[in-house]
Amino acid sequence: MIAPSPWVVRHLPLVPAGGQVLDLACGNGRHARLLATAGYAVVAVDRDFAAISGLQGVPGITALQLDLEGSDWPLAGQRFAGVVVTNYLWRPRLADVCALLDSGGILIYETFMVGNEAYGKPSSPDFLLCPGELRAVAKAGGLREIAFAEGYTDSPKPALRQAICAVRE
Q1: Cut 0.85: pTM above it
Q2: Are the C-beta atoms of 116 and 128 separated by less than 8 Å?
């Protein structure tokens, strides 16, 4: 299994202790497992049944197979102390993702940005952030930026990435 993102590891302590955390588009659950080990109640969501089934029965994790890109937002009305999103972008739901945070809740988001096509997939502009895009999304969602980074990384593989950590005050 791929190691947790250093961005997530660095900002995880900011998530209010004892809160429920959403791992959105969790894949195989590298961050869901990290969060559960850190004592959070985790809701791990992905549309891939095989990925979610690997998390069934893991202590501290509720794994749900949900379509995050359909016309109905399956998480409407829910609130979390933290939301973690990595390697996933579906622009029509970015405002909904910000709305999931409780007061004091932390968003930790990291994914690929324009220019990544030089390093492989994703390469479609539909799945690549524009410069400063997460910063603008957080601000529009009423969040205060704590940390922001964008540019080249060589770990876990060469890529152009963008990341934000923000709080709902």
Answers
A1: yes
A2: yes
